[in-house]
Design brief:
The chain is built from 15 helices and no strands. With about 425 residues, the chain is mainly α. It has a single domain, classed as MFS general substrate transporter like domains (Growth Hormone, Chain: A), CATH 1.20.1250. It starts with a helix and ends with a helix. The C terminus is likely disordered.
């Protein structure tokens, strides 16, 4: 975060910084929805099952769009998908703010938001990988997570405050934030088909009008055909499975957390602040976490972090006071800080630039699919018994930890070429990729 702030103050924003800055602003508005959406559904007469479906619907849409969006990102470029998907999201936010129709119509608008968000994510992650050398991508994805944590720090508090005026106001705030964030994204270069960070520097790079230096690149004019079964590799599938577990856990929280704290007598403002508090340790330590991801044995790092997340989730149902709840959340946030950046770094290092959008789509498919399960299935279990969703999420994380401890690819040294062979060709592939 300090690097981005320094670049912003000196007006020497690199393209990756623009992407991160745009995501910070956008995610602040999107995170404003987290503590209020269940209350919004309640205000429209919805039940616990309706809340779960209202949250799960966008996640299902996001899941279904990941693979086609990833292919589109590789075919037409990163930038058109980044811009088009966010414009659609902002338009749908206007409909939700105006409460256009009954609850089922509003749920369809949320599904549309999920689809537009699902298209944005593989484009963002592919572009960041294009702009970052292989040995530094864990750090770059940690920076992305840090930007999202700034959004998580500010957004829920803003959403909780706006909800005191009107629940639908959170959608207006979300749409405005997305449009503001696009101002930074629009000025980035297209990176399709080229590893900009790995390209030799141009003899005399030209300076942009704002003082930043645009890297030299020659994007591929067309998408090369993908090798058959290119996706059937542990370097892609194992981190994707772990991402499914992470998505399951945190989408479960989207549904359950506001109801969990509301049942303990806390209002929307406190709920929003509790989510913001969760972001503080990640924000402060994300740089160190990213460097650790690039240097440590990920086959040890990721399973340990997932086990800590599972232990914290199992603890929440037995807590009643906000202060021990926040203490457990702080421990959990330190583990969360290590999981997603490490897994997406593994995915980015498993493919060539021409396949990167599709690879990020595969990872996003698993993560969003896990999110749909967490919100739709585990979230609905809250209406049966409060501990069930927490214990279910913990079980999923423990199973993912076991898989990662056995088969997650170890850290690839910088500069190693990706292995594009299908799984099963070499018995030792898991250990050498």
């Amino acid at each position: 975060m300090l690097e981005i702030l320094r670049a912003l103050l000196t007006r020497r924003l690199e393209p990756a910084h623009r992407l991160l800055l745009g995501q910070l602003v956008m995610f602040t508005g999107i995170a404003a929805l987290f503590p209020v959406v269940p209350l919004y559904v309640r205000a429209h007469g919805g039940s616990s099952a309706d809340i779960a479906l209202f949250v799960a619907g966008p996640l299902v849409a996001s899941t279904l769009v990941q693979l086609p969006a990833g292919h589109l990102v590789d075919r037409i470029g990163r930038k058109p998908v980044l811009i088009g998907s966010r414009l659609l999201y902002a338009a749908l936010s206007g409909g939700l703010f105006l409460n256009l129709g009954p609850l089922w119509v509003l749920a369809l608008l949320r599904v549309g938001q999920g689809a537009s968000g699902g298209a944005y994510v593989p484009a963002l992650r592919a572009a960041l990988a294009d702009l970052t050398p292989p040995g530094e991508r864990g750090h770059r994805y940690a920076q992305l997570q840090g930007c999202e944590m700034v959004g998580l720090l500010l957004g829920p508090a803003i959403g909780g405050a706006v909800a005191l005026w009107a629940y639908s106001g959170i959608f207006a705030a979300s749409g405005i934030a997305v449009l503001l964030g696009l101002g930074a994204v629009i000025r980035m270069p297209e990176t399709r088909g080229a590893d900009i960070a790995a390209s030799p520097p141009a003899p005399a790079p030209s300076a942009a009008r704002d003082g930043s230096h645009a890297p030299a690149t020659t994007p591929a004019p067309a998408t090369p055909p993908a090798p058959r079964w290119w996706w059937l590799r542990p370097a892609l599938l194992i981190p994707s499975v772990a991402l499914a577990a992470a998505g399951t856990m945190f989408s479960m929280y989207d549904v359950v957390w506001p109801q969990f704290l509301n049942a303990r007598g806390y209002d929307s403002l406190v709920i929003g602040l509790s989510i913001s508090f969760f972001a503080v340790p990640i924000l402060l330590l994300t740089g160190r976490g990213g460097r650790l991801s690039d240097r440590a044995d990920r086959r040890v790092l990721v399973p340990v972090a997932l086990c800590v997340v599972a232990a914290c989730a199992s603890t929440y149902p037995w807590l009643r006071n906000i202060f021990p709840i926040l203490a457990v959340g702080t421990v959990e946030s330190l583990a969360v800080m290590l999981v997603e950046p490490s897994l997406f770094a593994v995915i980015s290092e498993s493919t060539t630039a021409s396949l990167r959008g599709r690879a990020m789509g595969v990872g996003g498919l698993f993560e969003a699919g896990g999110g749909a399960f967490g919100a739709g299935v585990l979230g609905a279990l809250y209406g049966i018994a409060e501990p069930l969703p927490f214990l279910g999420g913990a079980t999923v994380c423990l199973l993912a930890a076991l898989v990662c401890a056995r088969a997650l690819p170890r850290h690839r040294p910088a500069g190693a070429s990706p292995d594009l062979r299908p799984a099963g060709i070499a018995r030792a592939e898991v250990d050498v990729v």
